[in-house]
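Project outcomes to date are best conveyed with an example. Our students and postdoctoral researchers have been running inverse folding experiments weekly, and each run begins with a structure described purely in tokens. The record below, which covers 90 residues, was selected by the lab manager from last quarter's runs and is presented without edits.
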């Protein structure tokens, strides 16, 4: 509880700096349908939580864990995106 609000506060703070320091944000919550900030990488773009539940005949908690496990299979791609972004930041 409060994770999205926390990230929103940090994001707002970083954008308010002079000069602005926009963060690179990853949303790793496969269930959340709306976040009050723009995520650079969103697990929901890769893994459909409800489809995972249907495909594997899982309940909500197991569906979340399985969606996260499936996402980790592509984490090397996530790390490459982060590395590219790091090259443009001081």
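After processing, the design step wrote out the following sequence:
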């Amino acid at each position: 509880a409060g994770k999205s609000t926390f990230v929103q506060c940090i994001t707002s703070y970083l954008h308010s700096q002079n000069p602005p320091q926009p963060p690179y944000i990853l949303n790793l919550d496969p269930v959340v349908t709306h976040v009050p900030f723009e995520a650079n990488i969103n697990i929901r773009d890769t893994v459909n939580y409800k489809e995972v539940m249907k495909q594997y005949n899982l309940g909500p908690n197991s569906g979340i864990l399985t969606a996260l496990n499936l996402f980790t299979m592509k984490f090397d791609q996530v790390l490459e995106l982060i590395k590219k972004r790091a090259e443009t930041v001081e």
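The helical segments are 3-16, 49-56, 60-72, 75-86. The radius of gyration is 15 Å. The training component of this project remains on track.
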